[in-house]
Design goal:
Largest sheet: 7 strands, mixed
Length: about 200
């Protein structure tokens, strides 16, 4: 269930200060479906998938932008438009493929009109924070098409590293024929005082 604490909007180097990032709730089916439709899912399929995603994913976050509000006004949820969606789940391991059980990003969808404003960066950072709150110290994996340089750059900007290139990952194949497995390893905690042991 998608029931962890709300995340304050953070830009992590971007300019997404007016964006509200929060967990998707059952009341957000239409918002989630709208964003799923942006990645090519038909409207009916998106409306069918949205409630299942909200219920099943332990992390599913929406980035919402205020519409029709003046500067300094508090964001009224009815006046927030969905601009991005991302989440994470635990992907079971596959010992035969040498793949351990890992938290995996479920995808990142950003409305084309909202791109290049730091929203994807803020949302992906919030997903990492949510996973860290649920399962401290665990790495997070994301797999992107090797031809999607913007997505690779975004992942690098929030601390992912490129682990390997693959033709297939957990049944997923890639448009360009190759994907990049990106891994985010949480910073090790140091013992004692700040700055080390």
């Amino acid at each position: 269930m998608n029931d962890f604490a709300d995340h304050s909007p953070r830009a992590r180097g971007g300019s997404a200060t007016s964006i509200v990032i929060r967990p998707a709730s059952p009341d957000d089916v239409a918002r989630v479906a709208r964003l799923l439709a942006l990645r090519g899912t038909g409207a009916e399929d998106a409306l069918a998938q949205a409630p299942r995603m909200i219920e099943a994913l332990p992390v599913l976050l929406l980035a919402l932008a205020p519409i029709g509000q003046g500067a300094g006004e508090d964001a009224d949820d009815d006046r927030l438009a969905p601009v991005a969606l991302s989440g994470a789940f635990v992907l079971p391991g596959d010992p035969g493929a040498g793949r351990p059980e890992r938290w995996t990003v479920s995808g990142l969808v950003v409305d084309p009109e909202a791109r290049r404003h730091g929203i994807g960066r803020a949302l992906l950072g919030a997903v990492l924070d949510a996973v860290a709150a649920l399962d401290p110290g665990e790495p997070v994996v994301s797999v992107v098409d090797a031809d999607n340089h913007a997505s690779i750059g975004l992942h690098l900007a929030v601390g992912f590293t490129q682990a390997e290139r693959v033709e297939e990952y957990a049944g997923v194949t890639f448009e360009g024929g190759q994907g990049v497995v990106m891994v985010h390893e949480p910073a090790p905690e140091t013992a004692g005082e700040p700055g080390g042991e």
